[in-house]
Design brief:
16-stranded antiparallel barrel, disordered N terminus
């Protein structure tokens, strides 16, 4: 590099000398010798200056460590939507709400939103502590909106997931904010990203701070066992203010949630996927000196039968599970502050006739035990049907999704229905 710089400097110097006007005829040999010596001295000073600048730049240059990789990716997405009934959330509804009294505004409504757009930053180090390091930061704009005329079009940034993991050939350690280990799988959707598909209809999805560790054996088929400790949460909304939070029943138990699971993974030419079986155990404060147990058994599966066909799904049964993302339709305690027992799950079948095309549909159900609830005020059952088409001619993403939601209340209201239509358009980077 230095030789090239010197050659360039010499060429420029020669051009500069050639461009100068011709010297007057030498008056004497001594004068000519003095002029040439002065020019050579100036050229040597210029070359020395160039050497010093090159050395300074080489010393100041900062290069990434060999093999380290940082990547910024994201999804810019606009969703247009229409609902034919009153729901709890216009652009990503979960349950049907009781209708307004007659004579008011119409219940059906439509609009558009861009707040399900995402940004993700990933970092990887191929050699760290004898294994590999992977980190991820996942953000979206689904953090709500400030009271303003802009409303949904001025959304707040939200931290979705953050993950730091060190993986060895037969083990791993992870800490961050992630879905419960017993319910990591989510359905495919361009309409339900801010609140994942089948939330409150059988999907225990809520991202929680946690730490995990696990071991695994096998090559093509791998069998692993994992344990985790999660931040306790009852799933209650925070309504104190923009900055300050208050402890809920789970945090007042002064104990973390605990989870464990057994996982089987495989990866072959025509089929890949995983099957897991896990358990959850936690506590909620009932009174000053009494605790209620939150527990669940859950199973999940995600696999491809061929390169064109994929199945995803989860099932669970337990009690006091609102803190995991809406189990029991968000109801922890029922009559007499007894834990609400619930069961549920979801399944989705996707067909990919082309790498850029997906056609699929699914069903989700969350069914609390009616005996634990007051029928005058409680939600007795919630289910969702969905069908979707996605087309991803990179970098564009286009989608159409239809969803039917059925929410069952007590005898006074019965079962209420809502239809949701969602059109999505955006691009990935």
């Amino acid at each position: 590099m230095i030789s090239k710089v010197l050659l360039l400097a010499t060429t420029l110097l020669a051009g500069s000398l050639a461009a100068q006007p011709p010297l007057p005829p030498p008056a004497a040999t001594g004068d000519q010798d003095t002029s040439l010596a002065a020019r050579l001295e100036r050229a040597e000073r210029l070359l020395q200056l160039l050497r010093e600048q090159v050395n300074q730049q080489a010393a100041a240059r900062v290069e990434p460590r060999t093999g380290n990789h940082v990547e910024l990716s994201g999804l810019v997405l606009v969703n247009g939507f229409f609902n034919n009934a009153k729901v709890n959330n216009s652009d990503v509804p979960q349950i049907v709400l009781p209708p307004d009294p007659p004579g008011g505004l119409p219940a059906s409504h439509g609009g558009a939103s861009a707040r399900q757009s995402q940004i993700a930053l990933t970092a990887s180090v191929p050699q760290f502590a004898g294994g590999q390091f992977h980190g991820e930061l996942d953000l979206d704009f689904f953090g709500g909106q400030q009271p303003s005329s802009g409303g949904r079009t001025w959304p707040l940034v939200r931290l979705r997931r953050v993950r730091a993991e060190v993986e060895w050939p037969h083990g791993w350690v992870m800490f961050g904010q992630e879905a419960p280990s017993i319910a990591e799988i989510n359905p495919s959707s361009l309409a339900q990203i801010g609140l994942v598909g089948f939330a409150r209809s059988g999907n225990l999805w809520l991202w929680l701070p946690q730490v995990r560790a696990g071991v695994e054996v096998g090559t093509t088929v791998k069998i692993g066992i994992e344990g985790s400790a999660l931040a306790p949460t009852a799933g209650d909304p925070q309504g104190v203010g923009l900055l300050f939070t208050q402890p809920d029943r789970a945090e007042r138990s002064r104990r973390p949630h605990l989870q464990g699971r057994l996982r089987i993974r495989w990866d072959e030419a025509e089929s890949s996927g995983e099957i897991s079986l896990g358990g959850h155990y936690g506590w909620l404060a009932k009174t000053a000196d009494t605790l209620v147990v939150s527990r669940a058994v859950a199973a999940g599966a995600r696999f491809t039968a061929t390169r064109y066909l994929e199945l995803r799904g989860e099932v669970f049964a337990g009690q006091a599970l609102a803190g995991l993302g809406g189990g029991g339709i968000g109801q922890n305690l029922g009559v007499g502050n007894a834990p609400v027992r619930a069961r549920g799950g979801w399944a989705q079948l996707n067909v990919r006739p082309h790498p850029a095309v997906e056609v699929g549909g699914g069903y989700g159900l969350d069914d609390p035990d009616d005996a634990d609830l007051d029928p005058a005020t409680a939600l007795l059952r919630n289910l969702s049907w969905e069908g979707h088409v996605q087309w991803r001619p990179a970098p564009l993403v286009l989608g159409l999704e239809f969803r039917r939601i059925e929410t069952t209340y007590g005898p006074a209201l019965g079962t209420l229905f809502a239809h949701h239509v969602n059109v999505a358009a955006g691009f990935e980077f």
